[in-house]
Amino acid sequence: TPTPEVSMARKIPELDRLIRAQMARNNIPGLAVALIHDDKVFWSAGYGVANSFTRRIVLADTPFEAASIGQPLTAYAALELVQDGKLDLHKPLSSYLTKQFVARSPYRDQITAWHVMTHTSGLSNNLREFTHEVAFKPGSRFSYSGVGFMYLQRVIESITHRPFNDFMTQTVFAQLGMGSTSYFRSFGDVRIARGHVYLLGFALPMPFAPIAQPNAANLLCSTAPDLAKFAVELMNPHFLDRNLVGQMLTDQVQGNIGKEQVSWGLGIGLHHTGKSACFWQWGDNLDFESY
């Protein structure tokens, strides 16, 4: 009888064929993937090209823009501050700031970290707004909001007295061994994958530009193996209290994204099928897609 590791290894060629076929069918220039088994990153690989002009290939450790996958990492970091007694999940976020992030309204001082992590803050998902309005009473319903995580980022910076990316790098990323993860495009054009858009049937690489300001909502850059390490930590936590991770992975609210009904834990989506369950998050920056 083969061991579980041998059984998994035997499935890699089938997975490899599936990935190559789907990339060809969907015109995907480049992709990186990681597979977890038994609380370890079991396998990872790169496919296709990181730049369709130069034909630079994707490696397993090629950084991509992971976009909104930065949100569960931000939630995890905030819960480390909860664990340390520096942040209260149910205390108004406005009380942590001297310069307010949200426009004055009857609801501004009701938004908490719990509301942000469960996408019930009443804030929008329009990351380009100059003023941030609260559309409904916090906690009253689900409405996916990247702006809420921008708000939580400001609070984390206020509590720690450190720039957001520095705090994330020196705590969460260092703890989990995520050495190729950043809220900046700090890996340079020679290593990071370019986003691509299609024009007249051709995949055209987008220009490379450094990120001036980190954004917890949609500007995470990472590799598939690094993000797999974070997933492993959620499955078998070593650094964050298991009860807090349990809250991340327990249904807090339900709502809809388009026509799809979703459940959300603290900072991460949850999906139930019969007796099985999974946690998930996608990222979409138009020229990058991640899951």
What are the low-pLDDT stretches, counting only 5+ consecutive residues below 50? none
Average pLDDT value? 94
What is the β-strand count? 13
Oligomer: single chain
- Report the biggest beta sheet as strand number plus sense, adding barrel if it closes: 4 strands, antiparallel
Assign an overall shape. Answer: globular
Q: What is the helical fraction, as a range of percent?
A: 25-40%
- Please compute the radius of gyration using only Cα atoms: 20 Å
| Number of H/I helices | 7
What is the percentage of strand-forming residues? 15-25%
Order of helix and strand elements from N to C terminus: HEEEEHHHHEEEHHEEEEEE
Distance between the termini: 34 Å
The order of strands across the largest sheet is 8-9-10-11
- Helix and strand composition category: alpha+beta
